Amino acid sequence: xxxxxxxxxxxxxxxxxxxxxxxxxxxxxxxxxxxxxxxxxxxxxxxxxxxxxxxxxxxxxxxxxxxxxxxxxxxxxxxxxxxxxxxxxxxxxxxxxxxxxxxxxxxxxxxxxxxxxxxxxxxxxxxxxxxxxxxxxxxxxxxxxxxxxxxxxxxxxxxxxxxxxxxxxxxxx
Length: 173
Fold this sequence. Notes:
Low-confidence stretches: 4-28, 160-166
Radius of gyration: 26 Å
Number of helices: 2
Strand content: 35-45%
Oligomer: single chain
Strand order of the largest sheet: 2-1-4-7
Shape: elongated
Number of domains: 2
Distance between the termini: 38 Å
CATH superfamily of the largest domain: Cupredoxins -  blue copper proteins
């Protein structure tokens, strides 16, 4: 066999082996992730706030001058981690049931969250990575934070069913 023909035959054989083994990425199999619109609700949650000193008197010392919580209140976002896929559009519903003002800040998105209100915001997850989100109210930092995890589209199984592998009749039992 000539060298050129051998090279072509080797490439064809390698392609067949890869196809049979399923080692090709989704995009080479003709299956691509189709970005989705995701509805995500995030609520602000008070963990340690001054109002609790009426119920938990031991907190008075913590919130007093020189206390470990002087000038701070501890809030959280629930959930604190949101996972989506690159290209997804996220429709956030941001719920603040408290009377304190909060904010929701991601790279390229900043939303004010007035007390006892629900606010909507839309965000497109353009690139894979882990992106922090925070409440930018100074007295709520660094505790009030979370993360948006954006998975690479090529690493996610597509919505298209995987091809059916046929068994050679000689190996069927």
